[in-house]
Specification:
Radius of gyration of chain A: 35 Å
CATH architecture of the domain at 118-302 in chain A: 3-Layer(aba) Sandwich
CATH superfamily of the domain at 65-138 and 175-238 in chain B: P-loop containing nucleotide triphosphate hydrolases
Function (chain A): Component of the origin recognition complex (ORC) that binds origins of replication. DNA-binding is ATP-dependent. The specific DNA sequences that define origins of replication have not been identified yet.
GO molecular function, one term (chain A): DNA binding
Oligomer: heterodimer
CATH architecture of the domain at 65-138 and 175-238 in chain B: 3-Layer(aba) Sandwich
Helix content of chain B: 40-55%
Strand order of the largest sheet of chain B: 2-3-4-1-5
Distance between the termini of chain B: 76 Å
Number of strands of chain A: 11
Structural class of chain B: alpha/beta
Strand order of the largest sheet of chain A: 3-4-5-2-6
Number of helices of chain A: 35
Number of helices of chain B: 14
Strand content of chain B: 5-15%
CATH topology of the domain at 65-138 and 175-238 in chain B: Rossmann fold
Shape of chain A: globular
Family (chain A): Belongs to the ORC3 family.
Largest sheet of chain B: 5 strands, parallel
Distance between the termini of chain A: 24 Å
Largest interface: A-B, 129 and 137 residues
CATH class of the domain at 118-302 in chain A: Alpha Beta
Strand content of chain A: 5-15%
Structural class of chain A: alpha/beta
Keywords (chain A): DNA replication, DNA-binding, Nucleus
InterPro entries (chain A): ORC3, ORC3_N, ORC_WH_C
Helix content of chain A: 40-55%
Number of strands of chain B: 8
Chain lengths: 734, 363
């Protein structure tokens, strides 16, 4: 939200007042202090109760925030974000969050149950090999001598993701899953395996999780005796180490050696998350420890796969109704691909987008109704929500004015809203159909999704005959996902075509218009299959078919032509990007700049820019007049930093000071200054209009202050003993 | 695709600037001017003057501040949604953040940590937070009518226990949290990885929300991806204030106040005055020798011993050594070997400074 600059507050705001008072001066030098305690209103959980009731009086329909009211409220008391808006955000976001969690859980469930089966089977085999008596089991002797009895059963879970962040949740889920199956589970992370606390630290951590949270000794016999208590021994003990590569190798090796000594008495299963390669443990563990491991490998799905699944569930299946514009999607994609690469950050980006949407768009609270499952909710309830003010705001939306919808079509609004709510369905079906087709070319849903949101795309041009020839002749269409889909279509083998048709049929089942078209393809498919069988080569790809296959080729050609026609039909009829629909602003977040600045702070660039272009931020009259020349009225640090730009990687303090002084002392008064420079007592004000030379001491003090401020921002390094007259520049260019 | 190109372009610009600057340094010889060529005023006066510097553009700055005031409600909304706020941009943000806290966060308890101070004990902060929270929860239970459990005292507990208490389950409404304001989360006392880990764990607690400010351009390097995405959960806000770093800068030395002759002579005099008269006299012998032999590397230790013994300032080599150790500790004297391999003592001050120092001592 850009500061409007029209605020009634006088300049002497409380910031400066509180800053100077003696009370805060004392607080400034305390390491920490309590600024204030919560006012009693919060204790009842009615945070904005006062505001809410106030609104009730003002507005006949408190359910919706009116724009005009909103504006006045914003100016009056800043309570722009009502409890209602917060509530709706909570509803919407928790829905999205839950969807994502479910998707991730599903994507891991196979691996999880695999791990559990492995634990069960191995546990049973250990038990059957020979149960120990209680007294034997809690003693550290007799020392077991058979090599096989010292093996520690280990599951290596390959995360296929270098970033650990995404897998934290995975391992938490795994912990819950195994606990629900009756296992005793403890989770350790690299923090527990520090060289500082040694193996004792992680043993303590284990005992705290297994036995009781107040244990403060590291003794593995406690674990053994605990295991024999109260039927604990009926279930296996599982230890999860989620980021093996980051653990301190020797400590982890020690733990493995200790636990393996007790392997028979306490059947322990070690689950190690490995993100780099399956031989990673070889690099960090000692040979002794490695010999004790009896490893089994499990592999999780890759981040890109999970990403596509999340995308599908959040945007293409009915979820919260919240969606993003083409530009935002492109930004999220490039952030995922170029900057971070973790699903966690993608989800965070989505949450920030959602938050920004709610804080920018007053009508966003209507999303609440999209969250509910019923389709026709709005028709009844929706109309009564529409107050005069909402209507005004709604009809001022750019998408509405662009489509020349006026107030005369007042009654149409519920219809449009209903359409919005229904709209994604055929659209998302088409996107998913394209995704199915694109899978043969290893296309990512993320790419398709980004392209398909483009409101200016003209897909149909790909179907013109010249374009088809073009696309076959050269490879320019790399960025163009839909063109790639169409091209790949012509290279598909009959079996691939038939599997694609099957998935299309399933996808379109709820939508008869498309479904009919898909079913119409069946006869062609049968013809292709028949032709293929006649040739005895039902699965050979088209390319390698011999000349004698001309019949099959002909049928295939007819088939692919037909499929292309169906795709054309789908694109033409249903591929209306959300941004071309009237009233889409209610559910579509579009402000990519806001998202970017909130997500990616750029202190390195921005702080330098602040200094180099200070007058743009301060909007002062005095400094912005004359282009690039330095004026004495500018901020001192800003002058100094601009001067620093002219120096090499080190700056001579003397020269720097002299040029700083030259700027501060205007040329006209320089002659006068020379005669007076000894009089230090004259401390004169420097005013923009009539700059008068400040005293030497003041210039020096201001120089010191400015250098200190540059040092705080980390833009320069102070003089060293070796180079006492120079400071070093740290940042070059913004 | 465009983004990738932009990034590449930025990186190209950055490296070009860097090499240009390096080239500039190599091609033209570095300026040989010395700081001592400037007539630097006394440190005392410098500090006094520094405190009287008038703020430029104070009108524009306070306008900027009141512009930010319009965003307070948005910030509260973001805090309630579970994000942490990270303020950056040039200028002290202390006043801004505290004003925000006292104006808009009245419904929540607010604890301020001054990260710019050289030492902050995070354990004590956690204790204070835990006590605040238990108070808050007690009030809540009372008002909702349920029985309050007996609370143990916190000081005996470990950091982990306190953190897990702060991360307790949210009862009913999600709005029960304490707001922690951290000025300069990149400050000297908090810059070590352990403090940052603790702060990250604190910020991920369900009953805690963080509002922090950074000033250093490289502050984000303090955090790894887990801290950024899972724990701090920052929302960045670019809020340059151009306000002077009054409190934040207190612990930084003044660049012009180091190494000036007057300054070192003065500090040396202060040190010497705290020594015994015999110690002072030994130093005087050394100083006079250095003044009369300006071309030599220094006074040989043996010569100093015999000269001091003659005048009954020291009785043995041991006493002389104890004086010398004292001098060396305060950097009043340095040892060197001259061309003959003799150990020589040298006062690392200019002749002028030594003369000044002798004058001060004789007063």
């Amino acid at each position: 939200m850009a500061p409007s600059g029209t605020v009634a507050d006088p300049p002497q705001c409380s910031t400066t007042d509180s800053f100077n008072s003696s009370d805060t001066a004392e607080n400034d030098i305390r390491p920490f202090f309590v600024l204030h305690k919560a006012s009693s209103g919060n204790h009842n959980g009615k945070l904005t109760g006062i505001v809410k009731s106030k609104r009730r009086i003002e507005s006949p329909s408190p359910k919706i925030a009116k724009r005009s009211e909103v504006e006045s409220v914003e100016e009056e008391d800043g309570q722009f974000f009502s409890t209602l808006r917060f509530k709706v955000f909570e509803t919407v976001w928790s829905k999205i969050e839950k969807t994502i969690e479910d998707v991730l859980r599903n994507s891991n469930s196979k691996v999880f149950s695999g791990i559990h089966d492995w634990i069960r089977e191995s546990f049973e085999s250990i038990i059957s090999s020979g149960a120990l008596k209680l007294s034997e089991a809690v003693r550290s002797y007799p020392v077991l001598t058979q090599a096989s009895s010292k093996q520690l059963l280990t599951a290596m879970v390959l995360t296929r993701n270098l970033e650990m962040v995404d897998d934290l949740l995975t391992f938490e889920e795994l912990e819950l899953h195994l606990k629900s199956q009756g296992c005793h589970v403890a989770k350790l992370s690299s923090m527990d395996f520090s060289a500082k606390s040694g193996v004792g630290g992680c043993l303590r951590g284990l005992l705290r999780q297994f036995v009781m949270p107040t244990v403060d000794v590291a003794d593995v016999t406690i674990l053994a005796s605990w295991y024999r208590e109260n039927k604990n021994h009926e279930n296996p003990v599982v230890i999860i180490v989620d980021d093996t590569e980051r653990c301190c190798g020797p400590v982890l090796s020690d733990l493995i050696l200790i636990l393996s000594e007790w392997a028979i008495k306490v059947p322990i299963f070690l689950i190690m998350g490995v993100s780099t390669a399956h031989d990673a443990p070889r690099k960090i563990l000692s040979v002794n420890a490695l010999q004790r491991l009896c490893a089994t490998r499990f592999t999780l799905s890759s981040p890109a796969e999970r990403m596509d699944a999340v995308l599908k569930a959040v945007f293409l299946k009915p979820c919260s109704g919240f969606t993003v514009s083409h530009k935002v999607a492109l930004f999220m994609r490039s952030y995922f691909l170029c900057q971070d690469g973790t699903l966690t950050s993608f989800v965070r980006t989505l949450k920030i987008a959602c938050l920004q949407h709610f804080s920018l768009e007053p009508l966003s609270i209507m999303l609440e109704h999209f969250c509910h499952d019923g389709v026709n909710q709005l028709s009844g309830e929706g109309t009564e929500l529409l107050t005069e003010a909402t209507m005004k705001h709604a009809f001022d939306l750019p998408s509405v004015t662009r489509n020349k919808i006026t107030r005369s079509t007042f009654e149409m609004l519920p219809h449009f809203l209903l359409d919005l709510q229904r709209m994604p369905n055929p659209w998302s079906i088409v996107v998913l159909c394209l995704y199915e087709a694109g899978k043969f070319d290893k296309l990512r849903l993320l790419d398709i999704f980004c392209e398909i949101l483009d409101p200016e795309a003209r897909y149909l041009k790909y179907f013109s005959p010249s374009e088809i020839v073009n696309s076959q002749s050269h490879n320019s269409g790399r960025n163009n996902v839909i063109r790639r889909v169409l091209r790949k279509l012509r290279d598909l083998s009959p079996s691939q075509l038939s599997s694609m048709l099957k998935s299309w049929e399933n996808l379109t089942a709820e939508f008869t218009e498309i479904n009919d078209k898909v079913i119409e393809l069946h006869p062609f498919m049968r013809a292709v299959e028949a032709a293929g069988q006649r040739q005895g080569l039902p699965n050979s790809p088209k390319k390698h078919a011999s000349r004698s296959n001309s019949k099959l080729e002909k049928e295939l050609k007819a088939m692919t032509d037909k499929v292309a026609t169906v795709i054309e039909f789908m694109l033409r009829e249903y591929m209306k990007p959300v941004e071309s629909v009237p009233f889409h602003e209610i559910l579509c977040f579009k402000n990519v700049d806001k998202l970017q600045s909130a997500l990616l702070g750029d202190p390195r660039g921005r702080i330098q820019l602040d200094l180099l272009e200070s007058h743009d931020i301060l909007h002062c009259v005095c400094c912005s007049q004359r282009g690039t020349t330095l004026l004495p009225s500018m901020h001192d640090t800003s002058i100094l930093y601009k001067l620093a730009q002219e120096h090499a990687d080190v700056i001579n303090l003397h020269d720097w000071y002299q040029s700083f002084k030259t700027i501060l002392i205007p040329r006209s008064s320089k002659a006068k200054q020379k005669s007076k420079s000894s009089s230090k007592s004259k401390k004169r004000k420097e005013i923009c209009e009539e700059p008068e030379a400040p005293a030497e001491a003041l210039i020096q003090a201001r120089f010191c202050r400015a250098v200190m401020e540059l040092q705080i921002t980390g833009l320069i390094r102070m003089p060293s003993k070796r180079r006492p007259d120079f400071v070093q520049r740290v940042a070059f260019g913004s | 695709m465009e983004d990738i190109e932009n990034i590449e372009e930025d990186e190209y610009g950055f490296s070009r600037n860097y090499f240009l600057a390096k080239e500039l340094g190599g091609a033209s010889k570095r300026s040989a001017h010395k700081l001592s060529d400037i007539h630097i005023v006394d440190e005392q006066e410098l500090r006094e003057t520094a405190s009287t510097i008038e703020m430029k553009h104070s009108k524009e700055i306070s306008e900027l501040m009141s512009d930010y005031k319009t965003m307070y409600s948005k910030w509260v909304f973001e805090l309630r949604c579970g994000f942490g706020l990270l303020m950056y941009g040039f200028g002290s943000k202390k006043a801004l953040v505290e004003d925000f806290a006292s104006a808009s966060l009245t419904d929540y308890s607010v604890v301020v940590i001054n990260g710019y101070l050289p030492s902050v004990n995070l354990k004590q902060v956690l204790l204070a937070l835990a006590e605040l929270l238990s108070e808050l929860l007690k009030c809540k239970r009372k008002s909702s009518g349920s029985l309050s459990k007996g609370q143990e005292t916190f000081p005996s507990r470990s950091m982990d226990d306190i953190l897990s208490f702060l991360h307790g389950p949210q009862s009913g409404d999600k709005d029960c949290f304490i707001c922690v304001v951290v000025h300069n989360i990149d400050g000297p006392a908090l810059r070590d990885p352990e403090s940052q880990q603790t702060l990250a764990r604190l910020s991920s607690c369900s009953h805690i929300r963080l509002v922090a400010s950074i000033d250093h351009v490289n502050a984000p390097l303090l955090w790894d991806k887990k801290m950024v995405h899972k724990q701090f959960n920052w929302l960045w806000h670019h809020v340059p204030t151009f306000a002077p770093y009054n409190v934040e800068g207190v612990f930084f030395p003044l660049v012009l106040a180091q190494g000036s002759t007057a300054q070192t002579a003065k500090t040396a005099a202060i040190v010497l005055q705290s020594l015994t008269p015999n110690g002072q006299n030994v130093f005087k012998i050394l100083a006079e020798y250095q003044l009369s032999h300006p071309d030599e590397d220094g006074m040989p230790t043996d010569d100093l011993y015999s000269a001091s013994r003659e005048r009954f300032f020291v009785s043995s080599q041991v006493t002389l050594n104890s004086h010398l150790t004292e001098f060396k500790d305060h950097e009043l004297v340095k040892t060197k070997r001259n061309s003959d391999g003799q150990e020589c003592l040298n006062i690392p001050l200019t002749s002028d400074a030594i003369r000044q120092l002798l004058l001060d001592l004789n007063q």
